[in-house]
Amino acid sequence: MTGETTSTADPVASAPGLVGTIAGIREAVAAHRRDGRTVALVPTMGALHDGHLALVRRAREIADVVVVSIFVNPLQFGAGEDLDRYPRTLESDLAALGRDGVELVFAPTAAEMYPAGEVETRVTAGHVGTLYEGASRPGHFDGVLTVVSKLFHIVQPDHALFGQKDAQQVFLVQRMVRDLDLPVRVEVVPTVREPDGLAMSSRNRYLDAEQRRIALALSESLAAAESAAADGLDEVLAEAAGAFGDHDGIELDYLVVVDPETFLPVVEGAAGPARVLVAARVGATRLIDNGLITLG
Ligand code: AMP
């Protein structure tokens, strides 16, 4: 080392403003708005990875100010789920968001968001909210839509960004925005994957090396579904399920092909675009993935 100061790899990042209160984030956003800036919101539960950062980068492209919320929302976790052990990595999250030039991070406590404990008033996700993820996690999507709705009212963003990784969530958020006439434009960002195909997820860090290998069955099942798409629904389901046959240590939760417009299961003989949804348990870790196919 020569002791010279150089500005090589890491451009000097300024830490985002960290705000923990509803009043504080309203005030900070209002100050930007007074200066005529547009605002994008990226709701997250933290433990950020490159999937989250893809949302942040897209937000940066479409709005002047990027607000990232980091809140592990108790309302969307069921009894016996991983609320308590969900990874919380605020310091490294802030560093990553600083490198991407995020202006504001809203990281409230549960007491700030739900001062009376659990809320009585909720947004309900309707029938689709009870299927697939909603069948395995009763009440999950009501909890998601309730907190997303609260975040929209608190931040009042022009844009909100969500990942295609959580396809059912995106469908339900978009429908809530339409049904309730919420003045926000929802933008969906494609799923970011590890080089071997595993969809990035905060929960991947629960996996040991063997489980990490086994977890590839999810993305492999989607690839198998895509290869069989021209042969119709029954072939798609058979081939996609086959990807789980070779693995011990993974338990398929659901594998379903849905109409992207209604999110209801397609029937044999259907043709055109369809989305394959898959969920599986690897040890104690539940993972989900999805992909678009064109049924022949
Ligand atoms: P989470 O922190 O898991 O609630 O995710 C926050 C947002 O990031 C959601 O809109 C997710 O769909 C999105 N997201 C999570 N993982 C990925 C990924 N691998 N690719 C793209 N978006 C993702």
What do these coordinates show?
- There is one protein chain.
- The chain is an alpha/beta fold and 296 residues long.
- The chain folds into 2 domains: 4-189, HUPs (Rossmann fold), CATH 3.40.50.620; 202-291, Pantoate--beta-alanine Ligase, Chain: A,domain 2 (2-Layer Sandwich), CATH 3.30.1300.
- It contains 10 helices and 9 strands.
- It has a 6-stranded parallel beta sheet, sandwiched between helices.
- Helix 2 links the parallel strand 2 (39-44) and strand 3 (65-70).
- Helix 6 crosses helix 7 (167-179) and helix 9 runs antiparallel to helix 10.
- It is globular.
- Bound molecules: adenosine monophosphate.
- Adenosine monophosphate binds at residues 44-45, 51-52, 54-55, 162-163, 165-166, 189, 191-192, 199-202.
- Adenosine monophosphate (AMP) binds next to helix 2 and strand 5.
- Its EC number is 6.3.2.1.
Overall pLDDT score: 95
Strand content: 15-25%
Bound molecules: adenosine monophosphate
Q: What is the domain tally? A: 2
Question: What name is given to the CATH topology of the largest domain?
Answer: Rossmann fold
State the CATH class of the largest domain.
Alpha Beta
Largest sheet entry: 6 strands, parallel
What is the radius of gyration? 20 Å
Helix content, binned percent: 25-40%
CATH superfamily of the largest domain: HUPs
Shape verdict: globular
Q: What's the order of the H and E elements?
A: EHEHEHEHHHEHEHHHEEE
Report the CATH architecture of the largest domain: 3-Layer(aba) Sandwich
Task: Output the strand order for the largest sheet.
Answer: 1-4-3-2-5-6
Count of individual helical segments: 10
DSSP summary, beta strand count: 9
Family: Belongs to the pantothenate synthetase family.
Active site: 52 (proton donor)
Main location: cytoplasm
Organism: Agromyces flavus
